[in-house]
Amino acid sequence: MNIKINENYKNLGKNYLFAEIANRVKKYTSEHPDKKIVRLGIGDVTLPLTKSVTEAMTKAVEEMGVKETFRGYALENGYDFLRSAITKHYARFGAAIADDEVFVSDGAKCDAGNLTEIFGDNPVLISDPVYPVYLDSNIMAGRKISFIAATEENGFLPTPEGIKETGAIIYLCSPNNPTGAVYDRRGLKEWVDFALTSGSLIVFDSAYEAYIHGDYPHTIFEIDGARECAVEICSFSKTAGFTGTRCSWTIVPKELKAGGVSINDMWRRRQTTKFNGVPYIVQRGAEAAISDKGYAECLELVDFYMGNAAVISNALKEKGIFFTGGTSSPYIWMRCPNGQSSWDFFDTLLNEIQVVGTPGAGFGKNGEGYFRLTSFGSREDTVEAVERLKTIL
User: Fold this and answer.
1) What pTM value is reported for the model?
2) CA atoms of 204 and 181, how far apart (whole Å)
3) Cα end-to-end distance, the chain, whole Å
4) Which site from 10, 109, 235, 295 is most exposed, i.e. has the minimal number of CB atoms within 10 Å?
Protein backbone atom coordinates (compact mmCIF):
# COMPACT_ATOMS: atom_id res chain seq x y z
CA MET A 1 0.00 0.00 0.00
CA ASN A 2 1.24 3.47 -0.83
CA ILE A 3 0.08 5.16 2.36
CA LYS A 4 1.91 6.59 5.34
CA ILE A 5 1.51 5.24 8.85
CA ASN A 6 1.79 6.95 12.21
CA GLU A 7 5.51 6.45 12.78
CA ASN A 8 5.06 6.96 16.51
CA TYR A 9 3.60 3.47 16.79
CA LYS A 10 7.07 2.10 16.08
CA ASN A 11 8.14 3.54 19.43
CA LEU A 12 5.70 1.37 21.38
CA GLY A 13 6.75 -1.84 23.09
CA LYS A 14 6.27 -4.98 21.03
CA ASN A 15 3.31 -6.16 23.12
CA TYR A 16 0.88 -4.50 25.49
CA LEU A 17 1.78 -5.70 29.00
CA PHE A 18 -1.34 -7.76 29.63
CA ALA A 19 -1.27 -9.24 26.13
CA GLU A 20 2.26 -10.48 26.83
CA ILE A 21 1.11 -12.05 30.10
CA ALA A 22 -1.81 -13.72 28.32
CA ASN A 23 0.53 -15.12 25.67
CA ARG A 24 2.87 -16.62 28.26
CA VAL A 25 0.02 -18.13 30.25
CA LYS A 26 -1.56 -19.55 27.09
CA LYS A 27 1.72 -21.19 26.11
CA TYR A 28 2.18 -22.70 29.58
CA THR A 29 -1.42 -23.96 29.67
CA SER A 30 -1.09 -25.64 26.27
CA GLU A 31 2.04 -27.43 27.48
CA HIS A 32 0.60 -28.33 30.91
CA PRO A 33 -3.15 -28.84 30.43
CA ASP A 34 -3.42 -30.71 33.74
CA LYS A 35 -2.25 -27.75 35.84
CA LYS A 36 -4.73 -25.40 37.51
CA ILE A 37 -3.78 -21.76 37.02
CA VAL A 38 -4.77 -19.25 39.71
CA ARG A 39 -4.87 -15.71 38.29
CA LEU A 40 -4.03 -12.70 40.43
CA GLY A 41 -2.72 -10.67 37.52
CA ILE A 42 -5.17 -8.62 35.46
CA GLY A 43 -7.39 -6.50 37.68
CA ASP A 44 -10.72 -7.94 36.55
CA VAL A 45 -13.59 -8.31 38.99
CA THR A 46 -15.26 -11.65 39.76
CA LEU A 47 -18.36 -10.79 41.80
CA PRO A 48 -21.67 -10.27 39.93
CA LEU A 49 -23.52 -7.00 39.54
CA THR A 50 -25.54 -5.99 42.59
CA LYS A 51 -29.29 -6.35 42.97
CA SER A 52 -30.01 -2.63 42.55
CA VAL A 53 -28.03 -2.57 39.32
CA THR A 54 -29.59 -5.68 37.78
CA GLU A 55 -33.10 -4.58 38.72
CA ALA A 56 -32.54 -1.18 37.11
CA MET A 57 -31.07 -2.73 33.98
CA THR A 58 -33.90 -5.28 33.74
CA LYS A 59 -36.44 -2.49 33.93
CA ALA A 60 -34.53 -0.58 31.25
CA VAL A 61 -34.54 -3.65 28.99
CA GLU A 62 -38.32 -3.84 29.36
CA GLU A 63 -38.60 -0.15 28.48
CA MET A 64 -36.59 -0.78 25.33
CA GLY A 65 -39.22 -3.33 24.28
CA VAL A 66 -42.07 -0.82 24.39
CA LYS A 67 -42.61 1.75 21.66
CA GLU A 68 -43.44 4.58 24.06
CA THR A 69 -40.26 4.13 26.14
CA PHE A 70 -37.85 2.87 23.49
CA ARG A 71 -34.57 4.82 23.17
CA GLY A 72 -32.33 5.11 20.12
CA TYR A 73 -28.91 6.73 20.12
CA ALA A 74 -27.82 7.70 23.60
CA LEU A 75 -26.81 11.29 24.34
CA GLU A 76 -23.08 11.57 23.61
CA ASN A 77 -22.29 13.13 26.97
CA GLY A 78 -24.65 11.01 29.05
CA TYR A 79 -28.32 11.07 29.99
CA ASP A 80 -29.29 13.82 32.40
CA PHE A 81 -30.36 11.31 35.05
CA LEU A 82 -26.89 9.76 35.26
CA ARG A 83 -24.98 13.03 35.09
CA SER A 84 -27.10 14.32 37.96
CA ALA A 85 -26.48 11.13 39.96
CA ILE A 86 -22.73 11.55 39.48
CA THR A 87 -22.78 15.14 40.74
CA LYS A 88 -24.67 13.93 43.83
CA HIS A 89 -21.96 11.28 44.30
CA TYR A 90 -19.33 14.03 44.35
CA ALA A 91 -21.37 15.91 46.95
CA ARG A 92 -20.68 12.98 49.29
CA PHE A 93 -17.09 14.22 49.37
CA GLY A 94 -17.92 17.92 49.57
CA ALA A 95 -17.07 18.58 45.91
CA ALA A 96 -19.46 20.80 43.92
CA ILE A 97 -19.69 19.59 40.31
CA ALA A 98 -22.24 20.84 37.75
CA ASP A 99 -24.14 18.36 35.58
CA ASP A 100 -22.70 19.84 32.38
CA GLU A 101 -19.16 19.23 33.68
CA VAL A 102 -19.85 15.46 33.67
CA PHE A 103 -19.13 13.42 30.53
CA VAL A 104 -20.26 9.79 30.59
CA SER A 105 -18.27 7.31 28.51
CA ASP A 106 -17.55 3.62 28.07
CA GLY A 107 -14.33 3.37 30.07
CA ALA A 108 -11.77 5.34 32.04
CA LYS A 109 -9.04 3.73 29.95
CA CYS A 110 -10.67 5.10 26.79
CA ASP A 111 -10.94 8.61 28.22
CA ALA A 112 -7.34 8.58 29.49
CA GLY A 113 -6.19 7.84 25.95
CA ASN A 114 -8.70 9.99 24.10
CA LEU A 115 -7.98 13.12 26.12
CA THR A 116 -4.62 13.35 24.35
CA GLU A 117 -6.47 14.30 21.14
CA ILE A 118 -7.63 17.72 22.30
CA PHE A 119 -4.18 18.96 23.37
CA GLY A 120 -1.20 20.11 21.34
CA ASP A 121 2.45 19.23 21.64
CA ASN A 122 2.82 19.72 25.38
CA PRO A 123 5.42 18.06 27.59
CA VAL A 124 3.97 15.11 29.48
CA LEU A 125 4.85 14.12 33.06
CA ILE A 126 4.10 10.56 34.13
CA SER A 127 5.10 8.75 37.31
CA ASP A 128 7.21 5.61 36.96
CA PRO A 129 5.92 2.95 37.56
CA VAL A 130 2.77 3.81 35.63
CA TYR A 131 -0.46 2.36 34.25
CA PRO A 132 0.46 1.68 30.58
CA VAL A 133 -2.31 3.67 28.85
CA TYR A 134 -0.98 7.04 30.06
CA LEU A 135 2.39 6.31 28.53
CA ASP A 136 1.38 4.47 25.36
CA SER A 137 -1.31 6.95 24.29
CA ASN A 138 1.19 9.81 24.48
CA ILE A 139 3.84 7.80 22.63
CA MET A 140 1.23 7.30 19.91
CA ALA A 141 0.77 11.08 19.80
CA GLY A 142 4.52 11.66 19.52
CA ARG A 143 4.81 13.77 22.66
CA LYS A 144 7.91 14.33 24.77
CA ILE A 145 7.47 12.31 27.96
CA SER A 146 9.36 12.82 31.22
CA PHE A 147 9.13 10.37 34.10
CA ILE A 148 8.70 11.24 37.76
CA ALA A 149 10.35 8.61 39.93
CA ALA A 150 8.00 6.78 42.30
CA THR A 151 10.17 4.71 44.63
CA GLU A 152 10.26 3.11 48.05
CA GLU A 153 12.09 6.21 49.27
CA ASN A 154 9.15 8.52 48.48
CA GLY A 155 6.49 5.96 49.33
CA PHE A 156 5.68 5.62 45.60
CA LEU A 157 4.11 9.10 45.87
CA PRO A 158 6.34 11.50 43.93
CA THR A 159 6.15 15.25 44.45
CA PRO A 160 6.69 18.09 41.97
CA GLU A 161 9.91 19.15 43.71
CA GLY A 162 12.63 19.88 41.16
CA ILE A 163 10.36 19.72 38.10
CA LYS A 164 11.09 22.53 35.66
CA GLU A 165 8.55 21.85 32.89
CA THR A 166 5.78 24.37 32.34
CA GLY A 167 2.56 23.94 30.43
CA ALA A 168 2.73 20.19 31.02
CA ILE A 169 0.09 17.48 31.10
CA ILE A 170 0.55 15.62 34.38
CA TYR A 171 -0.94 12.17 35.01
CA LEU A 172 -1.73 11.24 38.62
CA CYS A 173 -3.55 8.15 39.88
CA SER A 174 -4.65 7.78 43.52
CA PRO A 175 -5.12 5.15 44.85
CA ASN A 176 -2.37 4.23 42.46
CA ASN A 177 -2.33 1.44 39.95
CA PRO A 178 0.00 -0.47 40.25
CA THR A 179 1.52 0.50 43.63
CA GLY A 180 -1.59 0.99 45.75
CA ALA A 181 -0.15 4.20 47.24
CA VAL A 182 -2.61 6.99 48.14
CA TYR A 183 -2.01 10.74 48.21
CA ASP A 184 -3.13 12.64 51.29
CA ARG A 185 -4.50 16.17 51.01
CA ARG A 186 -1.12 17.76 51.52
CA GLY A 187 0.42 15.67 48.74
CA LEU A 188 -2.34 16.50 46.26
CA LYS A 189 -2.24 20.16 47.24
CA GLU A 190 1.46 20.26 46.26
CA TRP A 191 0.56 19.04 42.79
CA VAL A 192 -2.37 21.42 42.43
CA ASP A 193 -0.22 24.38 43.47
CA PHE A 194 2.50 23.30 41.04
CA ALA A 195 0.00 22.98 38.19
CA LEU A 196 -1.40 26.44 38.90
CA THR A 197 1.99 28.15 39.03
CA SER A 198 3.42 26.29 36.01
CA GLY A 199 0.32 26.59 33.81
CA SER A 200 -0.05 22.80 33.69
CA LEU A 201 -3.02 20.43 33.58
CA ILE A 202 -3.48 17.44 35.87
CA VAL A 203 -5.28 14.37 34.50
CA PHE A 204 -6.38 12.70 37.73
CA ASP A 205 -7.43 9.03 37.67
CA SER A 206 -9.64 8.19 40.66
CA ALA A 207 -10.90 4.81 39.43
CA TYR A 208 -10.18 3.18 42.81
CA GLU A 209 -11.54 5.88 45.12
CA ALA A 210 -14.15 3.54 46.63
CA TYR A 211 -11.31 1.44 48.09
CA ILE A 212 -9.94 4.29 50.22
CA HIS A 213 -9.88 3.67 53.96
CA GLY A 214 -8.95 6.59 56.16
CA ASP A 215 -8.82 10.34 55.78
CA TYR A 216 -7.63 10.62 52.18
CA PRO A 217 -9.25 12.63 49.36
CA HIS A 218 -11.58 10.61 47.12
CA THR A 219 -11.41 13.25 44.39
CA ILE A 220 -8.93 15.92 43.43
CA PHE A 221 -11.79 18.40 43.61
CA GLU A 222 -11.61 18.22 47.39
CA ILE A 223 -8.44 20.30 46.97
CA ASP A 224 -8.67 24.10 46.67
CA GLY A 225 -7.64 25.31 43.21
CA ALA A 226 -8.16 21.97 41.46
CA ARG A 227 -11.03 23.30 39.35
CA GLU A 228 -8.58 25.67 37.65
CA CYS A 229 -6.03 22.97 36.73
CA ALA A 230 -7.47 19.43 36.70
CA VAL A 231 -9.76 17.01 34.95
CA GLU A 232 -10.76 13.80 36.67
CA ILE A 233 -11.50 10.35 35.28
CA CYS A 234 -13.47 7.77 37.26
CA SER A 235 -15.19 4.50 36.54
CA PHE A 236 -17.88 2.04 37.59
CA SER A 237 -15.61 -0.90 36.70
CA LYS A 238 -13.99 -1.71 40.04
CA THR A 239 -16.62 -0.11 42.28
CA ALA A 240 -19.76 -1.64 40.76
CA GLY A 241 -18.29 -4.56 38.80
CA PHE A 242 -18.76 -2.93 35.38
CA THR A 243 -15.59 -4.26 33.75
CA GLY A 244 -17.75 -6.18 31.27
CA THR A 245 -20.58 -3.64 31.22
CA ARG A 246 -18.49 -0.51 30.49
CA CYS A 247 -19.38 2.84 31.97
CA SER A 248 -17.25 5.66 33.32
CA TRP A 249 -17.11 9.44 33.46
CA THR A 250 -14.78 12.39 33.14
CA ILE A 251 -15.19 15.69 35.00
CA VAL A 252 -14.08 18.76 33.03
CA PRO A 253 -14.61 21.98 35.05
CA LYS A 254 -15.80 25.00 33.10
CA GLU A 255 -13.00 27.10 34.61
CA LEU A 256 -10.41 25.22 32.54
CA LYS A 257 -9.13 27.22 29.58
CA ALA A 258 -6.10 26.80 27.34
CA GLY A 259 -5.15 29.26 24.61
CA GLY A 260 -8.34 31.17 25.40
CA VAL A 261 -10.45 28.09 24.59
CA SER A 262 -12.71 26.21 27.01
CA ILE A 263 -11.44 22.66 27.56
CA ASN A 264 -14.98 21.68 28.53
CA ASP A 265 -16.19 22.86 25.11
CA MET A 266 -13.33 21.09 23.33
CA TRP A 267 -13.99 17.77 25.06
CA ARG A 268 -17.71 18.07 24.33
CA ARG A 269 -16.92 18.73 20.66
CA ARG A 270 -14.60 15.73 20.51
CA GLN A 271 -17.14 13.42 22.14
CA THR A 272 -20.07 14.52 19.99
CA THR A 273 -17.99 13.89 16.86
CA LYS A 274 -16.36 10.57 17.78
CA PHE A 275 -18.62 8.91 20.36
CA ASN A 276 -22.23 7.76 20.16
CA GLY A 277 -22.79 7.40 23.88
CA VAL A 278 -23.16 4.63 26.46
CA PRO A 279 -26.29 2.46 26.05
CA TYR A 280 -29.40 3.53 27.96
CA ILE A 281 -29.62 0.16 29.72
CA VAL A 282 -26.07 0.49 31.04
CA GLN A 283 -26.61 4.08 32.17
CA ARG A 284 -29.69 3.09 34.15
CA GLY A 285 -27.59 0.43 35.88
CA ALA A 286 -24.87 2.98 36.58
CA GLU A 287 -27.42 5.40 38.04
CA ALA A 288 -28.60 2.67 40.40
CA ALA A 289 -25.01 1.82 41.38
CA ILE A 290 -24.41 5.25 42.91
CA SER A 291 -27.82 5.72 44.47
CA ASP A 292 -27.70 5.52 48.26
CA LYS A 293 -28.90 1.91 48.29
CA GLY A 294 -26.85 0.86 45.29
CA TYR A 295 -23.66 2.48 46.56
CA ALA A 296 -24.01 0.66 49.89
CA GLU A 297 -24.26 -2.59 47.92
CA CYS A 298 -21.18 -1.67 45.89
CA LEU A 299 -19.21 -1.01 49.05
CA GLU A 300 -20.03 -4.58 50.12
CA LEU A 301 -18.27 -5.75 46.94
CA VAL A 302 -15.33 -3.50 47.80
CA ASP A 303 -15.19 -4.93 51.33
CA PHE A 304 -15.07 -8.45 49.93
CA TYR A 305 -12.14 -7.65 47.65
CA MET A 306 -10.36 -5.87 50.48
CA GLY A 307 -10.80 -9.05 52.50
CA ASN A 308 -8.86 -10.83 49.75
CA ALA A 309 -6.24 -8.10 49.95
CA ALA A 310 -5.88 -8.76 53.68
CA VAL A 311 -5.30 -12.47 53.00
CA ILE A 312 -2.46 -11.61 50.63
CA SER A 313 -1.04 -8.83 52.81
CA ASN A 314 -0.99 -10.99 55.95
CA ALA A 315 0.95 -13.71 54.14
CA LEU A 316 3.56 -11.23 52.94
CA LYS A 317 3.90 -9.78 56.45
CA GLU A 318 4.36 -13.30 57.79
CA LYS A 319 7.17 -13.92 55.32
CA GLY A 320 8.79 -10.53 55.87
CA ILE A 321 8.26 -9.36 52.28
CA PHE A 322 8.07 -5.59 51.68
CA PHE A 323 4.87 -4.40 49.99
CA THR A 324 2.61 -1.39 49.59
CA GLY A 325 -1.12 -1.25 48.87
CA GLY A 326 -3.76 -3.65 50.12
CA THR A 327 -5.20 -1.11 52.58
CA SER A 328 -6.80 1.57 50.39
CA SER A 329 -6.29 -0.29 47.14
CA PRO A 330 -7.17 -3.70 45.66
CA TYR A 331 -3.54 -4.02 44.51
CA ILE A 332 -0.58 -5.35 46.45
CA TRP A 333 2.80 -4.14 45.20
CA MET A 334 5.46 -6.47 46.58
CA ARG A 335 9.22 -6.56 46.31
CA CYS A 336 10.38 -9.67 44.46
CA PRO A 337 12.15 -12.06 46.85
CA ASN A 338 15.82 -13.00 46.63
CA GLY A 339 16.63 -10.12 44.28
CA GLN A 340 14.78 -11.70 41.36
CA SER A 341 13.80 -9.58 38.37
CA SER A 342 10.08 -9.12 37.99
CA TRP A 343 9.77 -11.26 34.84
CA ASP A 344 11.91 -14.01 36.42
CA PHE A 345 9.59 -13.97 39.42
CA PHE A 346 6.62 -14.14 37.05
CA ASP A 347 8.10 -17.26 35.45
CA THR A 348 8.86 -18.77 38.86
CA LEU A 349 5.28 -18.33 40.02
CA LEU A 350 3.84 -19.66 36.77
CA ASN A 351 6.13 -22.66 36.41
CA GLU A 352 6.50 -23.71 40.04
CA ILE A 353 3.15 -22.92 41.67
CA GLN A 354 0.89 -21.94 38.73
CA VAL A 355 0.02 -18.48 40.07
CA VAL A 356 -0.17 -15.51 37.70
CA GLY A 357 0.63 -11.94 38.74
CA THR A 358 1.94 -8.87 36.93
CA PRO A 359 5.67 -8.10 36.61
CA GLY A 360 6.51 -4.62 37.85
CA ALA A 361 8.86 -4.02 34.93
CA GLY A 362 5.79 -3.86 32.71
CA PHE A 363 4.86 -0.61 34.45
CA GLY A 364 8.20 1.11 33.89
CA LYS A 365 11.87 1.16 34.85
CA ASN A 366 11.16 1.75 38.54
CA GLY A 367 8.84 -1.23 38.57
CA GLU A 368 11.74 -3.61 38.05
CA GLY A 369 12.20 -5.83 41.08
CA TYR A 370 8.55 -5.49 42.13
CA PHE A 371 5.41 -7.48 41.41
CA ARG A 372 1.68 -6.67 41.44
CA LEU A 373 -0.95 -9.00 42.82
CA THR A 374 -4.68 -8.21 42.70
CA SER A 375 -7.43 -8.99 45.17
CA PHE A 376 -10.17 -9.38 42.56
CA GLY A 377 -10.26 -13.18 42.57
CA SER A 378 -12.66 -15.40 44.47
CA ARG A 379 -11.88 -15.99 48.15
CA GLU A 380 -11.14 -19.65 47.42
CA ASP A 381 -8.68 -18.82 44.64
CA THR A 382 -7.04 -16.11 46.71
CA VAL A 383 -6.50 -18.42 49.67
CA GLU A 384 -5.19 -21.17 47.39
CA ALA A 385 -2.81 -18.77 45.64
CA VAL A 386 -1.49 -17.50 48.97
CA GLU A 387 -0.91 -21.02 50.29
CA ARG A 388 1.04 -21.83 47.13
CA LEU A 389 2.93 -18.56 47.40
CA LYS A 390 4.05 -19.32 50.94
CA THR A 391 5.83 -22.44 49.72
CA ILE A 392 8.33 -20.46 47.68
CA LEU A 393 8.79 -17.24 49.68
Assistant:
1) 0.95
2) 14
3) 53
4) 10
